[in-house]
Design brief:
With 294 residues, this protein is mainly alpha-helical. It contains 14 helices and 3 strands. It folds into 2 domains: 103 residues, DNA polymerase, domain 1 (Orthogonal Bundle); 176 residues, hpI Integrase, Chain A (Orthogonal Bundle), CATH 1.10.443. Helices cover 59% and strands 3% of the residues. It has a 3-stranded antiparallel β-sheet. Helix 2 crosses helix 4, helix 7 runs antiparallel to helix 9 and helix 12 crosses helix 13. The radius of gyration is 21 Å and the shape is globular.
Length: 294
């Protein structure tokens, strides 16, 4: 990262942690957390971006990446936040940073998990209205992105990995071919009418750089990044009064809708790409509790 000596930062952090008389396993975990953050920052912001130029929104973006792309549990994300708080405190003490951006990021709790699972139809309507009312030149693309997350139950990484040849629009039943991520199975997902209409409209105006086969592209015609999807969703969520909304919440909503329409756990598991029915049951726990059949 430019003139920043990353190995030196990690070594200094290790010496600091050791001076705190922490357990060796804790020190090892915190060092791994810091390395993961620095790698993410380099991939996201470029290797010339110093970690001391980042702010609270960058730490929040890292946390969203851990949850939505890596599928990490709240306890793991919280440990990584704690590691970054200690790292930036040390950096402030040494005059390398003026502020501690990790201090402004709240630890995740069960309440955050429950909020992501309790999205209501009214919340969805407000989100969609925010996208529809956007004057952005990329509003058509953004509408397609939100529809694919909401009506196809895609993970964040699955969305950004979609290629043109994964999308079949001409068949009697339009569908997506989704590559499996993080242990989930690849699958075929039928496109609902709203998602189909959104993708067709986006395809009419999509302008990709030469050789780019990704379905979703940025303003330069290059593949849309997971960070860009997070940013656009967070923007529309704020407009809709849904601060903290994640792509995972839209996937939960999709799972509930599939279950309500089919009443069949195996159908939901197939649509989500789950290998094990127990995973699907955890996804649907509030819905299953409300069901007289369970």
């Amino acid at each position: 990262m430019g003139t920043i000596n990353i190995n030196g930062l990690v070594d200094t952090f290790e010496a600091h942690l050791s001076s705190l008389a922490l357990a060796p396993a804790t020190v090892a975990n915190y060092l791994a957390d810091l390395r993961a953050f620095l790698r993410w920052s380099e991939e996201t912001n470029g290797d010339d971006c110093s970690p001391f130029c980042l702010d609270c929104s960058d730490i929040e973006g890292f946390c969203a990446y851990l949850q939505e792309v890596k599928g990490q549990a709240p306890a793991t994300v919280n440990r990584r936040i704690q590691a970054l708080r200690k790292f930036y405190t040390l950096a402030m003490d040494q005059g390398l940073a003026e502020t501690n951006p990790a201090e402004g990021v709240s630890l995740l709790g069960e309440s955050a998990s429950e909020r992501s699972r309790s999205l209501t139809p009214g919340d969805v309507d407000r989100l969609l209205a925010a996208v529809e009312q956007s004057r952005s030149q990329r509003a058509v693309r953004d509408w397609a992105v939100v529809q694919l997350l909401l009506r196809a139950g895609l993970k964040l990484g699955e969305l950004t990995e979609l290629r043109l040849d994964d999308v079949t629009l001409e068949a009697g039943q339009p569908y997506l071919e989704v590559r499996g991520l993080n242990g989930d199975q690849g699958r075929t997902i039928p496109l609902e009418q709203d998602a189909y209409d959104a993708v067709v409209k986006y395809m009419e105006i999509r302008e990709a750089a030469p050789g780019v086969e990704s379905l979703c592209v940025n303003r330069d015609g290059n593949p849309l990044s997971t960070r860009s999807v997070q940013r656009l969703l967070h923007h529309y969520a704020r407009e809709a009064g849904l601060d903290g909304l994640t792509t995972q919440a839209l996937r939960y909503m999709y799972a509930r809708e599939v279950y309500e329409m089919s009443g069949d756990l195996k159908t939901v598991a197939r649509h989500l790409g789950h290998r094990h029915l127990a995973t699907t049951i955890r996804y649907l726990r509030p819905s299953l509790t409300d069901s007289p059949e369970i």
